[in-house]
Amino acid sequence: MTSTMTRRALALGLAALPVAAHAQRGPALSAADKALVDKAVAYLQSLGEAKGRFVQTDPRGAVTQGSLYLKRPGKARFAYDPPAGLLVVSDGSLVSIHNTKLKTFESYPLGATPLNLFLAKQIRLDRGVVVTRVARHADGFSITARDGQRQADGQITLTFSDKPMRLLGWTVTDPQGGATRVRLSGLQASPGLANSLFVLKDPRPRGVGRGKM
């Protein structure tokens, strides 16, 4: 995969779909749909410290995987297995991507990423995003949302299992229909995660290609 495609896949999977600041109207949801949205919000709000594994599939079908750590509010770490050479860390304000193979380092505001949907201190699916679809599956359900003001930026679908209630992953679809899927496994409570897991500093010398996207 080229470096451009690698960064694009990461951006779509972990750092895309900017979130607007004001509530927007979407299609009317049924009472049953609203109940599922409320159920998802309550579950996400209950997530404190957790860890698990993830598998990411980009629009071209390339698969990468690694370990995931969450510490709400605001903090997450996606450590990709070799040979990917990728590390994605949210420190509560910025989501930073370090590619050790390409020696690149890029950062996005947490509030401009889909991670903010479930890392925010107060999770709201009725503010800043528009829920466009609630779908039921044999073993759970999914919620599809888009930016309330930037429809051209694509959409994100969060998928949950019902018994037990658990976030299974998400899919980010770009305006061209390309989908990046992140599938979670073994996500479980893990109190006492070290704060150092959620710190990622630009390792490059000052003045050498530094900068934020």
Description:
With 213 residues, the protein is of the alpha+beta class. Helices cover 15% and strands 40% of the residues. It has three helices and eleven strands, in the order ααββββββαβββββ. The protein has an eleven-stranded antiparallel β-sheet with strand order 6-5-4-3-2-1-11-10-9-8-7, covered by helices on one side. A hairpin with a 4-residue loop joins strand 9 (155-161) and strand 10. It is globular. Residues 1-9 and 15-25 have low confidence and may be disordered.
Principal-axis shape equals globular
Strand-and-helix sequence, N→C?
HHEEEEEEHEEEEE
* Main sheet record: 11 strands, antiparallel
Round the mean pLDDT to the nearest integer and report it: 79
